[in-house]
Structure formats: C-alpha cells, structure tokens
Amino acid sequence: DIIPQPLLDQYLSMTDPARAQTVDTEIAKHCAYSLPGVALTLGRQNWHCLKDTYETLASDVQWKVRRTLAFSIHELAVILGDQLTAADLVPIFNGFLKDLDEVRIGVLKHLYDFLKLLHADKRREYLYQLQEFVVTDNSRNWRFRYELAEQLILILELYDPNDVYDYLRHIALTLCSDKVSEVRWISFKLVVAILQKFYANSANALGLNFINELVVRFRHCSKWVGRQAFAFICQVG
C-alpha cells in the first residue's frame, strides 16, 4: 500500500541485464543510487521486497554499481536496524572489503558509521581485517591510507584499550612511516588519540609501553625523518 505495485515492479526490473542493453547502460547504477530511498519509503518491515534486488546489485559486474552501494551501505544499515544489518548487510559489507579499491573506498569512508551499528562481538571480528586497508591495489593511492587514519581516530571509541593496543597500534605505527607526508601527519594525530584513549581509560601500563615504543622507533631512529616524526608527535600531543 506504500508504493503502487506496478511502480515497485518497474523499479525492481532495473536490474534486468536486458534493460541495460535496450534502455540505459547505467540503469543498474541509477537503481543502486536510489535504493536507500526506496528502502526508507518501504520501511524495514518490507525489506524482503528489496533484498534480492540489493544482492543482485551487490554482485553486479560493473564496479561503479558496487561502488554506489558501498558508499551508502551505512545509511541502509540505519534504516534496517541491527538484526537485518547483521543478517543481510554484513555478508555484502564483507564482500566489499575484498573488492577493488574503487569499491573499498566506499566502505572505508563510512567505516565508523557502519561498525558503530554492530553488536560488540560482531564488531570485534573486524579488528583482524582493518589492517588489510593498509594494502591497496595501487601503492600510490595515498588518499586511501589517509582516509584509513582518519577513520581509525573515530573508531578508537568502539574498542577497549587492549584491542586498540593489540590491533590498531600496529596500523598507526605503519602509517606513521608512510612515504607521503599527508598520511604521516594524520597518523601522528592517530598516535596521540591512541595515547589519550589509554590514559582516559586508566590503561597507564599500555600507554607507557606505547610511549617507550615510540621513543625506540622514532626518537632513536637512525634516519632524520624518524626523529622528525617523534618531534611532530610531541607537537600534536
């Protein structure tokens, strides 16, 4: 009763490959772009009407279609709620994480927005995968690593100090030694945010260990770039 059935049928038929050949080669991309709006209009109780179409679009051969969905999956998660997100969106989200960089950047830009909607146990599973974002198809794609550092600053609040120390600390140290200065600068802010996380949660031992590691790695570095990095970290702090 929310949307006239013929109109909904017309929308769902946009994923038909024949339509792309006869109507518009980018019709699937248009369908993907408007899907969150259709889902919001129908409401989560009618998600079953769109689920198959969404899965079809998520596996479309055109990366632009998958990229469009990747950029909006966090919005769809808000619309569907935690249960439907865990059941129907998490598998697709996991697929996007292993996709081309052009698709991965979509989930990376809103990584915090998506992870905060998951239950804590499901969220912890992604700790192992976050470091995979450091590796890109093209090493010159430094904006990807910059975006990762920015997201990690936000993501720190979602994990306890021990998880931050065991997983996110390694990523931060790697990014602090990046070849691109913009990536290093944002990574220095990430390092300071990690230290603030430790001391705000009374994890003083972890904080001290991390400081000692920074001293060994950067303060006593044989290269001036490393020693400069230590000075900048102190400046940010």
UniProtKB/TrEMBL annotation:
GO terms for cellular component: cytoplasm. This is PP4R1 phosphatase. One of its GO terms (molecular function) is protein phosphatase regulator activity. Keywords: Repeat. InterPro entries: ARM-like, ARM-type_fold, PP2A_Regulatory_Subunit_A. It comes from the Eukaryota.
